[in-house]
Amino acid sequence: MGKLRVSSFPFLSEDAKWGDADFVIQEPTTGVQWANGQTNLIKWTKGLDDGIDTFDIEMQQLGMDGLSFIARQVPATTNSLNVYISGIPTGDDYVIMFVNSSPGYLYTNSAVFAIANSTNSSSPSPDPSAPTVSLTATPNPTAAWATTFPASTNGVLSWRLAEGSHAQAVSIFATMAVCIFAGVLVVL
């Protein structure tokens, strides 16, 4: 599966960057048909140690303007999401995009898939252990996210990092005190 060109997305500037995250979207794939009124599966794998703690999931119909914001701040430890859709325009040119919507990074996109009003969808069964998001509106770039996951640390370490390092802190303080004292003796 190749990456889509930036020019395929009118909302991304030519300066938009591709992220370095190693995502592989396993579902939906080519030939999959989601159905309005049903819960559909997004499933992926993600590489390790790429510095990505959260990402956003969007859906776009390539032949139309507008985005459907599915989920914001999805934890990188998650590997699937159920999406209940209703009232989404039918078409055979939809893609799921994993992005960092703040600076406009597109990490990856799914294969093109279809959405129909039929109950004869070819989408895999939902994952009972995954969260479910409801998407019930036509694409709208000014709409709010369907869901926002709780905030994560995004790699920020707290003061707990210093726990258990009392000896190192004392050593650093003692070294600085000796240096200051020696500097004062040199000046006098």
Polypeptide structure, described:
- The longest helix has 22 residues, at 166-187.
- The strands form 2 sheets. Strands 2, 4, 5, 7, 8, 9 and 11 form a 7-stranded mixed sheet that branches.
- It is elongated, with a radius of gyration of 24 Å.
- The chain contains 1 helix and 11 strands, in the order E-E-E-E-E-E-E-E-E-E-E-H.
- By secondary structure, the protein is mostly beta strands.
- Strand 7 and strand 8 form a beta hairpin.
- Which secondary-structure class do the elements indicate? mainly beta
Mean pLDDT: 77
Strand content: 25-35%
SSE order in H/E notation? EEEEEEEEEEEH
Largest sheet entry: 7 strands, mixed
Tertiary shape: elongated
Low-confidence stretches: 1-19, 155-160
Quaternary organisation: single chain
- Give me the Rg, rounded: 24 Å
State the distance separating the first and last CA atoms.
Answer: 72 Å
Question: What proportion of the residues is helical, as a percent range?
Answer: 10-25%
Work out the helix count.
1
How would you concisely characterize the structure shown here?
The protein has about 190 residues and is mainly beta.
